[in-house]
């Protein structure tokens, strides 16, 4: 009887389902936690874990702590991470030059302009197109408008002459810097502050929240509020991972992401305003506001970028963007 009971217990244990623990979702990004992206990802983590009652756990890796600019896309495609929120500039180099329309200088006058694209049919088409490279687009996230920094004010094209300016790997952004008279130097975001400190590069462009949270105010004496271009992100996951999920879990993750992105977009302006206040209080960086005339001259100088890069981005994408913006 003793052996019979042991055998029955063994059979029952083999038949019982094995508890593998919660589904872990690794979410990597390259910025600090207290940026709009960092806070939106934390909100996503909270919502997923609450709504799944712990069945799913989101492990967040901020500040390039898991993967950086150069390898995060490859990591996603290899299944080494489940979710990313790359800047829109990064999609051009992996086969989606249409995303580079967001890099065009002075295309947008406000975040409301940006949302006419990201929240409309054109934005849906952009995300849908990611499927051809094994990705699923879950939505767009704002950071804000970029501003120029260096160790001198950048109020005219003459101020840019000869400067080595750090840029993302984007042909549009590189062309923008050349149009202003500067030399574009592509570098990973995580290496930018050190490169500035060591004078490997002379300046860069960033939204205010990135400039502040990365400590660039300690290595740049001047920041000029050019507001010349937009920086945003697309949240993506791997197609293989997404298709492995039950439909109910796909819906849960998509709704949590939609809610988190709404939150992130609502706070983006506020985070940048807080960063500007902090910069004024720190007093280490002089903040300059271009006049309307100076801003127009910078706009005129970079207009050639629209003409040069239109064919690469795709003229039909640009035409649709201008139509959405009412140009």
Descriptive report:
The chain is an alpha/beta fold and 327 residues long. The chain has one domain: D-Maltodextrin-Binding Protein, domain 2, CATH 3.40.190.170. The protein has 13 helices and 9 strands. The strands form 2 sheets. Strands 1, 2, 3, 4, 7, 8 and 9 form a 7-stranded mixed sheet that branches. Strands 5-6 form a two-stranded parallel ribbon. β1, α2 and β2 form a beta-alpha-beta unit. It starts with a helix and ends with a helix. The N terminus is likely disordered.
Give the fraction of residues assigned to helices: 40-55%
Overall pLDDT metric? 93
Largest sheet: 7 strands, mixed
SSE pattern: HEHEHEHHEHEHEHEHEHHEHH
CATH superfamily: Bacterial extracellular solute-binding protein, family 7
Quaternary form: single chain
The total beta strand count reads 9
CATH architecture annotation: 3-Layer(aba) Sandwich
Which CATH class? Alpha Beta
Give the termini separation.
86 Å
Strand content: 15-25%
Total number of distinct structural domains: 1
Q: How many separate helices?
A: 13
Principal-axis shape equals: globular
- Unreliable segments of 5+ consecutive residues: 1-19
The helix/strand class is alpha/beta
């Amino acid at each position: 009887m003793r052996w019979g009971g042991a055998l029955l217990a063994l059979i029952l244990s083999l038949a019982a389902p094995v508890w593998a623990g919660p589904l872990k979702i690794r979410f990597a990004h390259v910025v600090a936690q207290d940026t709009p992206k960092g806070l939106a990802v934390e909100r996503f983590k909270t919502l997923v874990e609450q709504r799944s009652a712990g069945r799913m756990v989101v492990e967040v890796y901020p500040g390039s702590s898991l993967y950086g600019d150069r390898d995060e896309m490859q990591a996603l495609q290899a299944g080494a991470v489940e979710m990313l929120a790359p800047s829109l500039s990064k999609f051009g180099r992996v086969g989606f030059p249409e995303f580079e329309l967001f890099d065009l200088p002075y295309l947008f006058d406000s975040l409301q302009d940006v949302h006419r694209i990201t929240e409309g049919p054109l934005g849906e088409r952009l995300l849908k197109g990611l499927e051809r490279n094994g990705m699923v687009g879950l939505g767009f996230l704002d950071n804000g408008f970029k501003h120029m920094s260096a160790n001198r004010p950048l109020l005219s094209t003459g101020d840019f002459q000869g400067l080595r300016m750090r840029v993302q790997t984007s042909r549009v952004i590189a062309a923008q810097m050349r149009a202003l008279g500067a030399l574009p130097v592509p570098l990973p975001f995580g290496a930018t502050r050190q490169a500035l400190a060591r004078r490997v590069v002379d300046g860069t462009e960033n939204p205010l929240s990135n400039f502040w949270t990365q400590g660039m105010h300690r290595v740049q004496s001047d920041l000029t509020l050019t507001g010349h271009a937009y920086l945003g992100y697309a949240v993506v996951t791997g197609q293989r991972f997404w298709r492995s999920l039950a439909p109910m879990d796909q819906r849960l993750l998509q709704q949590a992401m939609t809610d988190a992105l709404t939150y992130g977009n609502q706070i983006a302006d506020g985070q940048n305003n807080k960063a500007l206040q902090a910069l004024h209080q720190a007093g280490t960086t002089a903040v300059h506001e271009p006049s309307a005339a100076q801003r127009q001259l910078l706009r005129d100088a970079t207009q050639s970028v629209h003409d040069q890069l239109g064919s690469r981005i795709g003229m039909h994408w640009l035409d649709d963007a201008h139509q959405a913006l009412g140009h």
